[in-house]
Write a structure and sequence with these properties.
Blueprint: H1 7-10, H2 20-29, H3 32-36, H4 41-49, H5 72-85
Length: 107
């Protein structure tokens, strides 16, 4: 329960009503940047949706996130570029549904 006085004892961030005096002591020792630092989106994905993007699905090796692009204009430009560079679908393919090949009957 978020309003329980025992919340700070059981949550990973040690936040809650039962931790008021300890939080004030910690904020005096930390820099303003450290006080306002929130969870990264990578941490949130893992915590909320159990999605671990820091582990390769192919080899279970470590993956390093090198950028987080959040600007919608930049995202649209990247996607447009990728769509432009994608190979066009070949038009000379056979239809997906066709009759089986004719077999000559020898008598």
């Amino acid at each position: 329960m978020p309003n329980s006085k025992h919340c700070a004892l059981v949550t990973p961030a040690k936040r809650g009503k039962g931790n008021k005096s300890q939080v004030h002591n910690e904020t005096e020792e930390r820099t303003p940047v450290e006080r306002h630092a929130a969870m990264t989106w990578v941490q949130r994905l893992k915590r909320v949706f159990n999605i671990d993007i820091e582990t390769c699905v192919e080899c279970d090796g470590a993956v390093k996130v090198i950028a987080c692009i959040e600007d919608p204009v930049v995202i649209k430009k990247i996607l447009a570029h990728l769509k432009e560079k994608a190979s066009p679908e070949p038009t000379n393919l056979l239809p997906s549904v066709r009759a089986p090949p004719q077999v000559e009957l020898f008598g």
